[in-house]
Structures are given as C-alpha cells and as structure tokens.
Design a protein that fits this description.
Length: 187
C-alpha cells in the first residue's frame, strides 16, 4: 500500500462524512468507491475511529493553515472575517457539504473518544482564532467575553451552514451571514 492509497482513502472518506456524517461512513462502501478491498482500508486505518480521528485532525490542520494565512496575508479585519465565513460557504458550494467537524459534532454521542478529541480540537482552534480577531476589533472585551463571543460566532456560522444545507440553498447562508454582520455579531 502506498501513501497515495492512504490519501485517496482519506479524500473519499472526507467527502462521505461531509455528505452523510460519521455514521454514514462505511468501510465497505469506501472500499468500493476507492476501488480496493475493505482489508486494504483496514491496513491504513485499523478502525473506523482511527479513520475518523485522522480525518478530523487533517481537517483541523488544514484549517489552521488557512486561518493563519488569512492573518499573515493581510491586516484587513474585513478580509479575515470574509475569508473565515467563505471557508464554510465553500463546503456548501462543493456538493452541498457540511463542515467535517461540524457534522461530526452533531453525532458526538456516537463518536469514539479519539474522534471526539479531534472534533473538540477543531472547535477550540476556531474559537481561539476568532478570539484573537476580536482582540483586534473589540479590545475593550475581557478574555472571557472574547471567548464567549468567539464561540457564539463559530456556532452561528456553523448553524448558518447547517440551515442552508438543509434548505439546499446557498443564498440562505449568504443572507444569514449578512444578517449577522448587520446585527454586529460578526465584526
């Protein structure tokens, strides 16, 4: 087995989870989609929990790189927040998918502990980044107030994505995000 096979498994599995959720991830269907035997998937990921945690960890790492790039490439707060909401929007544009960790969080009670840890880490990364952004645009807030507002922003953006996906209408996401901006929830 090559690393290419592992990467292909992860790519196809990510799409499955973003579309069907963690409970919709099947090694048998994944193997069929990738064009390999189920045992080959088990070679790379002995359990579904191993695969789920690897997916969430990679998703978080990709998110960290993206969010870091937003702040490194510009000093414009509006571009930071536009870029932040855009990443959630792009999942919808890409076959009406959900944020990987957001859809996994909806199934939190069913997740193995190793997957829960990675899903929690994704939330923590988003809240920390948003809190850092709030420290720039709302410096009067205490650390606790910034963390609370950051969590509210994260939850609101995830929620906007969820409702838009359920409606099958990306305009719902766009309208909701604009309403958040107008109301002052988003900087």
């Amino acid at each position: 087995m090559t690393m290419d096979t592992r990467e292909t498994i992860m790519t196809v599995a990510r799409k499955m989870v973003q579309t069907r959720g963690y409970n919709g991830l099947s090694f048998r269907e994944l193997a069929k989609e990738v064009g390999i035997k189920s045992a080959s998937i088990h070679y790379h990921f002995p359990t579904k929990g191993d695969l789920g945690s690897a997916l969430a960890r990679r998703y978080t790492e990709d998110g960290i790189a993206y969010l870091s790039g937003l702040r490194e490439d510009s000093d414009d707060l509006n571009l930071w927040m536009k870029g932040y909401t855009e990443i959630f929007r792009m999942a919808l544009v890409n076959d009406n998918r959900m944020c990987l960790c957001g859809i996994m969080a909806a199934e939190y009670d069913d997740l193995p502990s190793e997957v829960r840890v990675e899903v929690d880490n994704f939330t923590d990364v988003n809240v920390r980044w948003l809190s850092d952004v709030l420290s720039v645009c709302r410096p009067q807030l205490t650390d606790d107030e910034r963390l609370s507002q950051a969590l509210a922003i994260y939850a609101a953006v995830e929620g906007a994505q969820l409702v838009a996906r359920g409606r099958g209408d990306i305009a719902v996401f766009d309208t909701t995000i604009q309403a958040y901006r107008t109301a002052g929830l988003l900087p």
